[in-house]
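We include the pair:
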Amino acid sequence: MKPILVFVELTAGAPRRASLEALGAARATGAETIAIFAGEGSNSAACSGAQKAIALSGDASSSDALASALAEAVKSNDCGGFMAAASSAGRDLAPRVAAHLDAVLFSDCIGITAVGDQLNARRPWLAGKVIADLASNASVFCATTRLNVFTSSEEAGPDTCDAAAISAEPKARVVSVEAKASAQLDVQEAPVVISGGRGMGEPEQFSLLEGLAAAFGNATVGASRAVVDAGWRPHAEQVGQTGKTVSPQLYFAVGISGAIQHLAGMRTSGVIVAINKDAEAPIFKVADYGIVGDALEILPVLTEAIQKIKAEA
């Protein structure tokens, strides 16, 4: 099987977890895995799962120029696949790379498998109601991997890396980035996520979820699609098929019935705790622990208990 080239996003010189998951997905196919990133002098050994690394020099602020360089790297290394995480950057770059390679792009994949010398993709269709196994006749398999679905490899990355350049003339470039200031952890990064649904009654009651998150200290608040559509919470907090996929160590589903759209975004969580008035709510079928009752009464008690445990620790 030909090698797979994986685009690795860096934060402060270190690979993002989503990119390490993409590397793990590529490595699991049995193909040689090549990590490629923009930035000279980055730590290639941190690219766990990669057997080879390539550092791109030049202006990486232009998506079209970077995509051109990635496509050239696929060709020069005779790769049979190109992969990236389905992050904002990956979703921007991967279609451009696929266009350069005259290939179809399988986006937001939840499975990548090798069948002989061919790579197949598994991804959800129809808001998660159908799971499709797909293959392409293109010479290069192109895919993005859904965040928090794949496991990163335990194999260390290479000690050295090759060099390549971003040489295409950019059509547009980013001149500045202004990050939105927020003290809250992103739902895809937090080890504890406390999500609320319409069962919370009104947007003001989300302060109870924020209080529980503050008690944990390493937690953040998420929301169901219904809550976001109602304008109670920002889209950045939405967990589900049309929101974000999360896989925290601990996930609370509070006042959430458990529609398939929501389950698609959180069912891989380590431990799931459901709090709902309706004992027949579908969420209890995937929960490790369930509490049947009024969340508005349960949350203050739970918050007080966590605060007490933290104080005694």
Summary: The chain has a mean pLDDT of 92. The chain has two domains: 4-165, 192-312. The radius of gyration is 21 Å.
